[in-house]
Design brief:
The chain has helices at about 1-25, 30-55, 55-85, 90-120. With about 120 residues, it is mostly helical.
């Protein structure tokens, strides 16, 4: 399970670095979308760290579920950027793959947390 935690956070960090470089080229008229993308990425990272240090399994589960919500919000803003032709298909697909990787590891981490909670009861 430790590998999953590390991998999920590592994937989030890599996503933020990629998004940060991509956002440098955003048009000024779409500054709000740019801010939202950046904000959701950092919220996701914070929640990952909070889940990692949480000793209470219910708290960990809540933080992991919130990460999944952040991913959906981030996906919405990235999709909007693609629809407005701010980012190209290559970037869109790359971000989508990174989000899929994060969802996969966070879901695994969440399932392991749920199983641990069940076995403790």
């Amino acid at each position: 399970m430790k590998e999953e935690k590390f991998k999920a956070i590592q994937f989030i960090r890599e996503l933020i670095i990629y998004l940060d470089s991509m956002l440098e080229n955003f048009p000024k008229k779409d500054l709000e979308i740019s801010r939202a993308i950046k904000e959701e990425g950092y919220k996701m990272l914070k929640l990952g760290y909070l889940a990692n240090v949480a000793t209470d399994l219910k708290e960990r589960k809540q933080n992991l579920e919130k990460i999944i919500v952040q991913i959906k919000l981030l996906d919405f803003f990235v999709n909007m950027s693609y629809d407005k032709r701010i980012i190209n298909q290559k970037k869109y697909l790359k971000i989508g793959q990174k989000l899929d990787d994060i969802v996969r590891y966070v879901t695994g981490w969440l399932n392991a947390t749920i199983e641990t909670a069940k076995s403790n009861n």
